[in-house]
Amino acid sequence: MSTLHALTVPKWGMSMEEGEITEWRVAVGDKLAVGAELVDIETSKIVNAAECPVAGTLVRIVGEVGQTLKVGMLMGVVAKGETSEAAIDAFIAGFVPDAGGSARAQGSNTQAANTAASVAAAPAAPAVSSAFSEGPDDTAVNASTVARRIAKAHNINLHNVTPTGRNGRVSKHDVEVVGGLCVLANANANVSAGAAASSEPQRSTADDSHIPSSPVARRLARGLNINLNDVKPTGRRGRVSKEDVEKAAVNATGVAYYREEKLSGMRKTIAARLSESKQTIPHYRVSVDIEIDSLLQQRKYMNGTLGHKISVNDFVIKACASALERVPEVNVQYTPDCIRQFDQVDISMAVAIKGGLITPVIRNVGLMTLPQIAEESHDLATRAQAGSLSVDEYKGGTFSISNLGMFGVDQFDAIINLPQAAILAVAAGVKKPVVRGESIVAATVMRVSLSADHRAIDGAVAAQFLQSLKGFLENPASMLL
After folding, report:
1. Which residues are designated catalytic?
2. This prediction's pTM
3. Total H helices, total E strands in the chain
């Protein structure tokens, strides 16, 4: 007797409504234990691994890589004991997620009928160029289940696909890239003879097998119907590169080559929040130059003599906390009915991650020492880039810092991180001539710009904050007292 169990999209945090499947870690037929990591799911902020709630065998993968599913929707099926394909199909057909995000299986075939109807209504995929179908048996090629299924459906030999997935695995996106190139090649082939004769340059018909080129460039040229004799090589030792073929395709067709990358849930959320912030908050900006030579000397002593690992950004975080305690009118949030002023300083630290940006929060910074801030900021940044932050670790800050100094940026403006009322943009420290008394001397100068919400923070208050911040950073010992 077999028992079937549904694998559904979990709900991580109160605000989570959906998630995008980025990679399956298991395959159909794998034996699973309770707690086994099944699939990576990207939410609007993080990527987490969903765990298996029951022990059994994975008998069906329903959610494909790249697909966005609502919380509670079906991703796969686990069986305890032997089962048939018909039983699995019936289970999937009867599966219905309820309004609360949990799910149930029932006898209705409505979902299966709708799915079948949508598949039947979908337009047929364009034929794939035969150049990508040629090659030896590809059953041993390391590829995801979904990638292999798509390649089979479009008659693409996986040896002709450049892998970009984890551990050199061919991903769904890799196969789609090849499929997209084939579509472009077929579109070019279908141009009428009259139009081709009048608008396209004459193409070579001579054998190009002797032309030095990279394997990717040669496959791309076949798919785009480009003769390598017509391509100007710019690669090493006169070899034709992938970029050379793309340029030749533009010259031949007049259409610029491009790829489309689907927006991730994180990128959609960033776009929505920043658009809302820019459109609804009356931003204004105040900037100041800060000399940080004393800070750099203090950092050198603390790291070299005392053995700490403190960054310039850690000093900035500490100085912001000290300045916010001195000018608490900046540590606020605006609401239609009131201005919330916080006693505790919780600083959101902008961290760039693959595909977007996240702002983990360092709590109660005013009570922390510089070494403690350094340890906490490093831990949060590391786990942010690994996608392992919990919801509580990037929610609820009262003030934000965005530092692009490591990229050599002289100055930039940051958009306020809702629902906060201010964000500090930190640029690079560069050597500049400054006037001291009657002399001009060289000093390391760092420009910071405060973006503030004029509904909650007046210009004089913002200036007082920057004045206080400048004092702490130019005299770092003062914030260590």
Report:
1. 454
2. 0.59
3. 12, 20
